Batch of 3 targets.
Target 1
Amino acid sequence: MLDTNPKLTKARRLREMLSSQSLEFLMEAHNGISSKIVEEAGFGGIWASGLSISAGYGVRDSNEASWTQVLEMLEFMSDATSIPILVDGDTGYGNFNNLRRAVQKLCQRQIAGICIEDKLFPKTNSFIGENQPLAEIEEFCGKIKAGKDSQTNDDFCLIARVEALISGWGMLEALKRAQAYYAAGADGILIHSKNSDGEEILNFLKEWGDRCPVIIVPTTYYATPTDRFRMAGTSIIIWANHNLRASISAMREVSRQIYREQSLSGVEGMITPVKDIFELVENAELARAEKVYLPQGEPDIQAVILAASRGSKLGDLTKDIPKCMIDIRGQPLLRRLASTFNQGNIKNITVVRGYKKETVNLPFIEYVDNDAYESTGEVSSLNAAIENLKNPSIIAYGDILFRHYILDQLLEAEGDIVLVVDALWRQKDSNPSSRTRDLVTCTEEFDSSYLGNEGVRLMNIAHDIPENEIHGEWIGLAKFSDVGIQKLREEIQKFSKSGGLETASMPDLFGRLLQSGSEIRVEYIAGHWLDVDNSGDLSEAQKFL
Ligand code: SPV
Ligand code: MG
C-alpha cells in the first residue's frame, strides 16, 4: 500500500510511488491552477510536462522557454499543491554542469524529481520528425551522475528517459542504454515510444524485468488497456499532456462561441463559475488571515427602518402608498431618510414594510415584510427584521427626518443602547393632542450650557407621562451596540414567550429593557427633526427641507 502520509517530503512520496508494488499514475499539469485540479482529482503526483509548460507560454517544446522560466512556473505549481511533482527536464538544459545547478534549484523548491532524456540540447519534441540524434551513452551517464551528486534531498529522484525506440535504434539499443543509465545511478527508467500499439513497450518491460522501476507515457498507444501494463510490472504511467489539450479544446469552443454570438449567455452554463475559481485558489484562507493580521476597524453599522404602517392620518395621500413613500419635494420620504444614513456611512439598510409593500421598492435597500401590519405594532415589525440585526445597528421609525449632525451625534455617543431625545418637544407643533408621542423621563433634564449633559440615562418612556416628569420626546432614532443588540434580541425572545409582543410599541420594549436592568443612554437634541404623521407635519416637512 502506497504511503500518502502528507508529513513525508514530496520527494519521499515520489520515491514511494516508484518503488510501490502497485501501478501509480502521474497526471500532467502546466501551471498552478492545473496542478491544483490534478491534486483535487485524486492523483498522487504531477507530471510537469515540458511540452505543456512551453505551450502554456505560447512557445515551442524546443527549449525556447529558458530553464529558469520553467523553474518559476514549477515554483507556483509546487506552492499550489501538496503532491509530488516529477519535472520533465528535457535534456538537462545543457551539459552535466547545467543539470547540476537545475537539480539544486529544484530541490530548493521541493520538486520531487527530474526526468532527463538522452537527446541533444536544444531538444525537439519526441513526436516531431524521425531519427533524432541521441546523446553519447557515456556523456549521458556522466550527466546522470552529476545530477544525483547535486541533489540536496536524499529522496529526490532522477529518471533517465530512453529515446532509442523513438529514434528508431531498436530494442537492443534501448535495453543497453537503460542498463547503462541505471548503473550510472538513475532511480528509474522512462522508456518512450511513439507506436500506436503498446507492443514495443510491453516487449521492453518483459526484457527489462524488475531491474529498476519503469515509467511509460502511452500518449500514442492509449488504446492498449492499462491492465496490460500493470500486469507487465510498469511502475508509473504518465498521462502526459491531457490537461493542456483539454483546456485548448474548451478555450477554443468558448472563445469561438462568444465571438460568434457577441454575448455571454450561451456559454455561462458550460463554464466554471467564478466562485469555483475563488475556492480553487483558497480565498477563504485569505479572509481568515485578514481577520488575524489586519487591523480590524469598527464593524459596519446597519440601519433597520420600521415602515410597515399606512399612516392613515394622512388620508387619501396614503391610499395607494404607505407614508414612508410619500413624496417630499420630489423624493419619497424613505429615500431622504436612507440618504441621511448613507451620508453617515451606513450603507446596509433594511426596511420592514407592510402596507402596500409592493410600492416600497427603492434600490440598494434590503426588505423584510410584516404582513400582519394591520393587527400588530412596532415591536412585531422589529421582530420581522431580527435575523438582520447582527452588527451594531441604528433603529429608526420610517416617517422621520432629521438633520445630518443628529446621526453623527448618535454614532459618537457612548452606551450600548442610546436614544435620541428632543428636549424642545413642546415647540414642535401647535396641536399636541394630534400626535402620539414617545415621552421620556431621564436622570437629568436637558442642559443647554456649553458643557451640556453627559451620561444621561433613561428612567421611563411612555405615551403618557405626568407633565412635570417629561424631559423630552424620543424622536424614533436609537443606536444599539453589539451588546445592545444581544440584549434587544433576548428581550424580544422573552417578550414573545410572555405574550403581548404582537401589539407592543417601541416604548413598551424599552420599558421592558429598563426593567430587565439594561442601561439606556439618552442623547439630547434641541429640535431639527420632524415626523410625518399628519398633513400639518407634511407641510412642515416641505419647509424643513
Ligand atoms: C512532455 O510531456 O513534454 C513529454 C512527453 O516529454 S512527450 O511529449 O510525449 O515527449
Ligand atoms: Mg517533454
Note: DSSP finds 19 helices and 21 strands in the chain.
Target 2
Amino acid sequence: MDGQPTLFSRIIAGEIPADIIYRDDDCIAFRDIQAQAPVHLLIVPVEPIPSIANIEPSHEQMLGHLFVVAARLGEEFGVARSGYRLIINHGDDAGQTVPHLHLHLIGGRPLGALVGVAPPAPH
Ligand code: AMP
C-alpha cells in the first residue's frame, strides 16, 4: 500500500457519498454504484486489507463476520430464498478494481453459471 486511503476507506470515513445500508465496528455495506443485478451490495471490512491475498490468521474472526453480515443482508434484501452469489475478486485476471478487500453480494435475478466471465484473453 502507498499510504493513500482507498476509495472504500474514504466512503467509510464519509468523505465520498455512498448508499450505505449497514455498518458496525468491523465492516460497512453499501450499494455498488454500477449494480450488475437488482441487488448488488458491497460488504467491506473497515481495515483496508488490499485483497484476499493479504489475509492473515488474525483476520479469521473478522472474515467470518463479513459472511454473517452477508447472510443477514441477503435476508433483509429479500434474496435469501431466490438465491444470490458472493464474489471476491483478487487481482487483474479477476478484474479487481478497488484494492480494498470486499465481498460482492449479487442477486435478484437468475445469475447463470458465473457472473462477469469475459472471453479468454491472451496473457
Ligand atoms: P472489484 O472490481 O471487485 O474491485 O469491485 C469494485 C466495485 O466497486 C465495482 O463493482 C464498482 O462498481 C464499485 N464501486 C466503485 N466506486 C464505487 C462507489 N463510489 N460507490 C459504490 N461502489 C463503487
Note: Residues 7-107 form a domain with the HIT family, subunit A fold (CATH 3.30.428.10).
Target 3
Amino acid sequence: MPSAALPPDEAERIATLRGYRILDSLPDERFDRLTALAAQHFGVPMALISLIDSARQWFKSSVGFAQRETERDHAFCAHAILAPDAVTVVHDATQDPRFANNPLVLGPDHIRFYAGAPILAPNGQPLGTLCILDREPRAFSEEDRHFLTQLAANASDLFDLHLSHLTLAEAATRDPLTRLANRRQLEAAMDTAMEAAFAGRPFALLTIDLDGFRAINNKYGDEAGDDVLSQIGQRLSSSIRASDVPARIGGDEFAIILSDPVSHEIVSRVAQRLIADINAPIEIEGAADGRPVVMSASVGCALALRHGTTPAEVRRSAKEAMYMAKREGRNRLVIADEVVPLLGNASYNTIEHRLGEAIAQDQLKLQWQPYFLTGEGRLTGYEALVRWTCPGLGPVVPSTFIPVAEASGLIGALDEWVLRAACKAALEIPEQLTISVNLSAYWFSREELVPLVKRVLSETGLTPQRLILELTERTIITHDESARHSMESLRELGVGFALDDFGTSYSSLNYLRKLPFDRLKLDRSFVGDLGADRQAEAVAGAIVQLGHALGMSVCAEGVETPLQLGFLNGASCDLVQGYLLGRPDWEPMSASTPVAAFAKA
Ligand code: C2E
Ligand code: CA
Ligand code: CA
C-alpha cells in the first residue's frame, strides 16, 4: 500500500496545525454539528473531521466511525491534503491502486467511497479534511463538491474560533510579561493541589522575591526591568518539571507549586538550583554600561499539610519564610519550619509524634452522634467520631490532627483503630441500629481496605449490614476506579456506603452515578442556611431529589434548629443528624431521644 507523499513545507504545516492546540482536545459540539450535517446531507454512514499529524490522523469529530485516530499511512485524507484547493474523490477504493489493500478498505470498516475537502489555515496550509465515507461506491456531482468545500470552510472558521477562545482564556490566566501563570491562576492551581495533598500527594509552595530589584528599574529603566523579569521567568520555568506550576504574582515576586514528591531534601535542592539560576548573569539589551546584571532572590518554602491545611495558610507560611530569608541576609532559602508556629501551639512534628503514640497506646476514644428518621424521629444509628486528648497538649480537635494523620500516613492506623473500636461497640447496642465510620482517602490509594474490613468484621462478629462507611468526595475523585472496586466487593458482603460532606468540594454527579453509594450526606454548610436563604433551600431540596432519583437515601448533617428540621421534613429528606437532635456523646445509648424536637418541627 503506497503511503501518501508529504506536502511541501511539511514541517511548517505540522507547526501550524499544532499551533491550534486542537489535537487531542475535548469533543466540541460545533464541530460535531458539521459532521452530522455532512452525513445527513449526503446520506452517508460516516463523516469525519480528520487532522493529519506527523504520524497519525486524529479525528476532531466523527460520525459512524469508532476510532479516535488511525495511522497516517492508512489515511485517505493524507492524500487529500496534497491537493489543498480541490475535493479529493475516490469513487471505489477497491479499484484505486492507492487504497485497494488499505486496512480501512479490507478490514471491518469496508470503506469503498471517500470524498474529502481540505481544511485550510489562513496561510493556505491544509490541516486536514472534512470528509465523508461510504461502504458502497457512489457518484459525486459538481454540486456535491461545492457543498463539501463549503462545510470545510466552515470547519476552518471553527479552528480560528477555537484558537481565539484559548487565547482569551489564557489572557485571563497568564501574566503577559513572563507568560507564566498569574496570581489568579496560581490560586486556582493551589486549590487543586490542596485537594490532591489531602489525597496523599503533597506539594510545596515556593515564594521567590528578587532582592534589590527596584535598583534595576532606577538604574536602567522600566524596560530593562521588564527584560530582567521575563528572563528570570524563563529560567524558573525551564528548571522545573512540567507538572510544577510557575507563576508571577506581583512586581518582582514569583511563586512555584512543586508537585509530588516533596521532602525537605528535594525541595531544598530544587530551591537552591533556582537560586543559582537566578544568580547567573543577565544581559540586558541597551544597558548603558554594557555589563550584565547579577540578581539574587530570597525564597520561602511551605509544605502543604505540614505548614498549613488550607491554600491561604500555605501561602502565608511560604511568605513568612521568605521574609525570614530576607532578614537573614537574602539570596537564600528558608523552609517554613523555622518560622511558623505550626497548627496552633503544637508543631506538626509534635502532633505527629504524639498521635503515633496515642494510636499505639490506645489513647484515642470514640464519641457517638445519633441519626434519626426525619418524619417519625426514630433513632436508626450512630456515627463514630474520634476524640483525642493528648497528655501534653490537652484535647486536640479532629480538624487539627486528621490532616496531620493523613499527611504522615498515620491515618491508616487511626482509621483501623476507629473501625475496630466502632464494630466492637456496635455489639453493645440494639441490633437494628447501624454504625457509621469515617474513612480517609488513604485507603483508596492502596488495596488494603477490603481485607481490613473483612478482618475486622470476622474478628468482632458484627453483621456487615450494620456497618456504613462514610467517604468524602475528595476520597473518591482521586481514586475513582479503585474506589469502585473496593466498594463493590464490600457491598457484596452487605456493608453500606455514605457520601459525606456532599456539595462541598466537587460537583461529582458523575461519581455519584458510577459509584455504589447507599446514602448521601448533605453538608452542614447547606443545612445551616435553611430557613434563611432561599438559594440554600433550593439546593438542599434539589440534592434530596437527586439522591432519591439515584436510589439513595439522604441524611442532612448539622441540624441545629427546629426551622431547619421542619424544612428537611417538608423536603422529604430521609435522615437527620445534628446538635438539635443529639450531640456526639461518649455512650451511644445515653443520647436522650429528642422526641420534643421532632414534635415541634
Ligand atoms: P464529619 O464526618 O462531617 O463529622 C461531623 C462533624 O460535625 C463532627 O465534628 C461533629 O461533631 C460535627 N457536628 C455534628 N453535628 C453538628 C451540628 O449540629 N453543628 C455543627 N456545627 N457541627 C456538628 P468533628 O467530630 O470535629 O469531626 C470533624 C471531621 O473529622 C469529621 O467530619 C470527619 O471528617 C473527621 N473525622 C472524625 N472522626 C474521624 C475518624 O474516625 N476517621 C476519619 N478518617 N475522620 C474522622
Ligand atoms: Ca462523617
Ligand atoms: Ca460530614
Note: DSSP finds 21 helices and 20 strands in the chain.
